[in-house]
Specification:
With 461 residues, the protein is an alpha/beta fold. Helix content is 34%, strand content 16%. It contains 15 helices and 13 strands. The strands form 3 sheets. It has a 5-stranded antiparallel beta sheet with strand order 4-3-2-1-5. Strands 6-7-8-9 form a 4-stranded parallel beta sheet. The chain has a 4-stranded parallel beta sheet with strand order 11-10-12-13, with helices on both faces. Helix 7 runs parallel beside helix 8 and helix 10 packs parallel to helix 12.
């Protein structure tokens, strides 16, 4: 499995407007000019930068003129930076958005934010829908809050590819799903496609609402627009706090199989005419339908990997690769586990347990490694993914006695502030598990990283 990004959900850090400098590379043009962390770039080439896009656009040359604010004395100093071809300016900013985040104006029936526990911290309910984060970070956006000027900026600056949520194409279905501004999203999308912007699209599929005939209509619409180079279809996920949904495809294997069958002719046509599959189903559909995940070549290089498209296939293939190319390391780990009387538990969500079990078998044919699938009682419903594991569930479900156990926690259950969704810290969780007698480490949940983490904690590197 390709490396997963650490979750950046609901950061507890305060967002401050302005292009604040977080770090400066020593020896870089910015460092030579005397720019320091904590300063703010107020203008670049005479322009007040709204975001990292403006910064890159206005500073795209051998020289750039800045106005820099120093909060220590309130001064604003002009400075001129020069660089060699290919050299970076050497500035990292605290955020990619300098003028604040665009929030969502929709009322989506399936919005996960509306299904959070009532005690969830306020930052979890921030609903961003910012086209700039689509380009800069790969977030999916609906485009319903994009103005004509912003649409023109996307085309003029070539902000491509964009990740866009479509969900449905029939106007009345879109309005029922998204809200009264649903038509604006399609209007802007058509404008971007006409301007040559490549789009990776998404559908959140809700049983009885935008599946069946409506899904076929949406697929037909996408098929006629070559600028949409991939379409991810992911199932509705619901929690126990949802007032609208109490079931999804995870509760109906036949409905999942029907979605798989509906997609097949579109996939076959795309492969025969374009050489790509283009129409992709999330891994959950294959798991829920009790069908094998497709081979790697059908995923077109995994353009929508972080939308859950092909993660299981990538993990399985990397397990085979690691077993072949790092057999000596696997054997060393297993031998040391046996010598020290240790066993390994890889913590994961219920959805990934069987797949991660393939790595456990490759690591220790003697059975000294296994998964520890954490049931998600905090969210409930059909939530079962690794990235949404919370401390409350983890610590309740882990044994009180963990002597002789090497516990590997998934990095994706923590955000950049090393917090879980229920607000616990990585450090406290590690301390608690160690108090129960465990050896504990944190790893990106893929085979190569698992193996590296085990080698390190066992002192074999």
């Amino acid at each position: 499995m390709a490396e997963q990004k650490r979750a950046d959900y609901a950061s507890t850090r305060e967002r401050a407007t302005g292009a604040w400098v977080a770090a400066v590379e020593e020896g870089s043009p910015a460092w030579e000019a005397g720019i320091e962390p904590g300063m703010r770039v107020d203008r670049v080439s005479g322009v007040v930068p709204r975001d990292l896009i403006d910064w890159r656009w206005e500073a795209d040359g051998a020289c750039c003129e800045l106005e820099v604010f120093d909060p220590r004395d309130g001064s604003v100093t002009p400075c001129e930076l020069w660089r060699e071809p290919g050299q970076d300016w050497g500035i990292d900013f605290t955020d990619v958005l300098f003028d604040g985040i665009r929030t969502c104006v929709n009322a989506c029936q399936f919005c996960f934010m509306a299904m959070l526990p009532p005690e969830a911290r306020a930052t979890l309910t921030l609903r961003d829908d910012d086209y700039r984060l689509s380009f800069l970070q790969g977030n999916f956006v609906t485009l319903t809050n994009v103005s004509d000027e912003e649409a023109e900026r996307i085309v003029d600056c070539g902000l491509s590819p964009m990740n866009v949520s479509i969900h449905a194409i029939t106007p009345e279905v879109r309005k029922s799903l998204i809200g009264r501004r649903a038509d604006r999203g399609i209007e802007v999308l058509e404008r971007l496609l006409a301007g040559g912007i490549e789009v990776h699209a998404q559908i959140v599929l809700c049983p009885g609402i935008n599946d069946g005939a409506e899904l076929a209509a949406t697929l037909d619409w996408v098929e006629a627009r070559p600028g949409i180079t991939s379409l991810a279809i992911v199932p509705l996920g619901y929690t126990k706090h949802s007032r609208r949904f109490k079931s999804s495809y995870s509760d109906d294997p036949e409905a999942s199989r029907a979605v798989v069958r509906l997609l097949e002719p579109y996939q076959e046509r795309a492969r025969s005419t374009l050489g790509i599959t283009r129409f992709q189903l999330s891994d959950e559909f294959y798991v829920d339908a009790d069908l094998p995940v497709p081979p790697a070549e059908t995923y077109d290089g995994y353009p929508q990997f972080y939308d859950g498209i092909g993660m299981l296939r990538s993990f399985l293939d990397e397990t085979v690769l690691v077993a072949r190319e790092r057999a000596c390391d696997l054997r060393r780990v297993d031998e040391v586990l046996g010598e020290r009387g240790l066993r390994v538990e890889l913590v994961c969500g219920e959805a990934a347990s069987e797949t991660i079990g393939a790595f456990c078998r490759a690591l220790s044919p003697a059975g000294r490694a296994r998964t520890r699938a954490i049931r998600n009682d905090y969210f409930g419903g059909d939530v079962n993914v690794t990235g949404l594991i919370v401390s409350e569930d983890l610590l309740v479900q882990m044994p009180d006695e963990l002597a002789g156990t090497l516990v590997v926690l998934p990095e994706v259950m923590f955000n950049f502030d090393k917090l879980t969704l229920d607000g616990d810290t990585e450090a406290r969780i590690l301390d608690e598990l160690r108090a129960r007698g465990a050896l504990v480490t944190v790893s990106v949940p893929n085979p190569g990283d698992y193996l590296d983490a085990l080698l390190a904690i066992l002192g074999l590197t």
